[in-house]
């Protein structure tokens, strides 16, 4: 019985953590749609938007090129 309770607890923790990382879509002013893995961050000093693409690469784009960022 303890094993069942701990297994259910572990599954709940895993589901909670997996729900924390949402994917986002960035629309650029030239019409491109960029899918991101996790929420993009905006560097206030440089104006660059930093994000992780779907393949896991760290990327940056000029914030002036981004028109909207929405959660998927």
UniProtKB/TrEMBL annotation:
- Cited PANTHER family: POT FAMILY PEPTIDE TRANSPORT PROTEIN, POT FAMILY PEPTIDE TRANSPORT PROTEIN-RELATED
Q: Which SUPFAM superfamilies match?
A: Sm-like ribonucleoproteins
Signal peptide location in the record?
A: 1-27
Stored Pfam families: DUF903 (PF06004)
Query: What PROSITE patterns does its record include?
Result: PROKAR_LIPOPROTEIN (PS51257)
Instruction: Note whether Cell cycle occurs among the keywords.
Output: no
Q: Under which name does UniProt file this protein?
A: DUF903 domain-containing protein
Question: What organism is listed for this UniProt entry?
Answer: Pantoea rwandensis
Keyword Lipoprotein in record: yes
Which taxonomic lineage is given here?
Bacteria, Pseudomonadati, Pseudomonadota, Gammaproteobacteria, Enterobacterales
- Give residue ranges for domain Lipoprotein YgdI/YgdR-like SH3-like: 23-71
Identify the keywords attached in UniProt to this record, alphabetized.
Cell membrane, Lipoprotein, Membrane, Palmitate, Signal
